[in-house]
Design a protein that fits this description.
Helices cover 38% and strands 20% of the residues. The protein is α+β, with helices and mostly antiparallel strands. Among the domains are: 114 residues, Carboxypeptidase-like, regulatory domain (Immunoglobulin-like), CATH 2.60.40.1120; 125 residues, Glutaredoxin (3-Layer(aba) Sandwich), CATH 3.40.30.10. Helix 3 runs antiparallel to helix 4, helix 5 runs parallel beside helix 7 and helix 8 packs parallel to helix 10.
């Protein structure tokens, strides 16, 4: 397995304890989810949610209320079904504002959007919950189900038109007419949103509805009449958060938030370090004034691009940016000073070996006791291979690197390897076992190289260009030839 190079503290960014059950799992196994997250703040209040579900013949069986937090689900409460499909949730602590499912036997689920009005009666037919739901006592839930029904009718018209126009180019003969249909149907959605904003501006459903909607899709054309996809994406991305109310922390506990967050970062933002840093900063500015959004967004992005967990070549750039810029004692109030200091120290170490940055020189002892210097190599491409003799992946990759080196050593490529976190006997044993054909060094303190080359796990492989800048990193040997095609262009 890969060997951890530097032992660090494990920091719990967001300490919530919950599994991620789907409706089927939760319905069949009441113990499949833990109690709700301690991070989902609850306040005192009267909870009296009464459900009358006709056709639910499951007396004595358990129903579960499942809450949503980012891409996780948690058990918020449970109840036992009585006569005639009746059950209720009671308590003196309000459930956190957000989106919930009530999962019943037979894979039947009730959708709940909970505000602070949690005394209501919910009547429905088990055969078709959405179409038959009638609510007494909750304006939020009444609006939610009214919208579900009206949206269902409109979706039947909208979906085929949206699919058709997505396959068209602006210069297609039918584009103008199809686009007009698309705009008319989009306007019906927008008119309903405007009505909700005018009539129920402070209702949680209105904020949920507007927070989850997408901006209007435009169809800019290139000079040849084809769709300008790049400009379309830029315009869509620039308005993506327009309807989202960052002053309403309850939206964090709904799919509206996580779906937008994930799409914005994972799909609408190019997956390279420069773009991710740029648009992370844009999003963090929106979240700046609300501590809950600030915490959740910064944590989620840091964890997503944490070294060792991301496939992004330079995840360290994204990770170190958000840690050093946003995890400060003034703003990261959910962490203690020691945790913040530990995170920032590690992130600072990463910044020494980011892509396009000038690499640091290394001088250390070779097998004969002679000192060797990294930049003494004049090869246009220089590979820095950092390994640990006790690392299984290092043993797998080293023979592949030897094969690669023998193929490319006369074509402008050199290798300089460094033994890390080991002893001299172990280093010498590894070197002799593989008969390393390139310059190989060892420094028992790691001090000659670690401040310049961040390594989270071994083996680590860096590619330096002719100017000795970091051109690629976090590679397997099998990927180097593809990198060489790009570096020599």
């Amino acid at each position: 397995m890969k060997k951890n190079l530097i032992i660090i503290f494990t920091i719990a960014f967001i300490g919530f304890a919950c599994n991620s059950p789907n409706a089927k799992d939760t319905g069949s196994n009441p113990g499949s989810a833990n109690k709700s997250s301690e991070t989902l703040e609850r306040q005192k209040g009267n909870v009296k949610m009464e459900f009358n579900i006709s056709g639910l013949n499951a007396k004595g069986q358990v129903v579960q209320m499942i809450g949503v937090f980012l891409d996780k689900k948690f058990l918020a409460d449970s109840a036992t079904i009585g006569d005639n499909g009746k059950f209720e949730f009671r308590g003196d602590l309000l459930q956190s504002k957000g989106f919930y499912y009530v999962v019943m036997p037979g894979d039947i689920a009730i959708k709940l959007l909970l505000d602070l009005d949690q005394e209501f009666i919910f009547n429905a037919d088990a055969a078709n919950i959405d179409a038959t739901a009638k609510i007494e006592g909750s304006e939020t839930l009444t609006l939610f189900y009214d919208d579900l029904r009206s949206k269902g009718d409109l979706d039947k018209q909208y979906a085929p038109i949206a699919g058709k126009i997505a396959r068209m180019q602006p210069n297609d003969p039918e584009f103008r007419a199809t686009h007009e249909q698309f705009k008319q149907l989009s306007k019906q959605f927008e008119d309903r949103n405007k009505m909700l904003l005018q009539k129920y501006p402070d209702n949680f459903f209105t904020k949920f509805k507007n927070g989850g909607k997408n901006p209007e899709l435009t169809f800019p054309a290139l000079p040849n009449g084809e769709l300008d996809v790049r400009k379309q994406t830029m315009e869509f991305r620039s308005h993506f958060w327009d309807g989202f109310d960052f002053s309403e922390p309850g939206l964090i506990n709904t799919p509206a938030f996580f779906n937008k967050l994930n799409r914005y970062i994972s799909e609408l933002t190019p997956q390279n370090q420069d773009s991710l840093i740029k648009y992370t900063d844009v999003l963090m500015q929106l979240a700046w004034q609300n501590d809950e959004y600030y915490k959740v967004i910064s944590n989620w992005i840091a964890l997503k691009y944490e070294p060792g967990k991301t496939k992004l070549m330079d995840g360290e750039a994204v990770y170190s940016n958000i840690i050093l810029k946003y995890f400060t004692p003034e703003k990261a109030t959910w962490l203690d000073e020691v945790s913040i200091s530990t995170l920032r120290k590690r992130a600072g170490e990463m910044t020494q070996s980011l892509l396009n940055k000038k690499a640091g020189n290394v001088t250390a002892k070779g097998m004969s006791g002679k000192m060797h210097t990294l930049f003494d190599s004049k090869a246009p491409v220089l590979i820095v291979f950092i390994y640990n003799p006790d690392c299984e992946h290092c043993e797998e990759e080293t023979p592949l690197l030897i094969e690669f080196y023998n193929k490319w050593k006369n074509n402008g490529v050199d290798v300089f390897s460094i033994a890390a976190n080991t002893t001299e006997p172990e280093w010498k044993g590894f070197r002799s076992r593989f008969n390393l054909p390139w310059t190989d060094v060892f420094d028992v303190t790691n001090a000659s190289w670690y401040p310049k080359y961040f390594v989270d796990v071994t083996p680590e492989l860096y590619v330096l260009d002719k100017n000795r800048k970091f051109f690629a990193k976090n590679l397997k040997v099998s990927q180097i030839e593809t990198i060489l095609e790009r570096i020599n262009k």
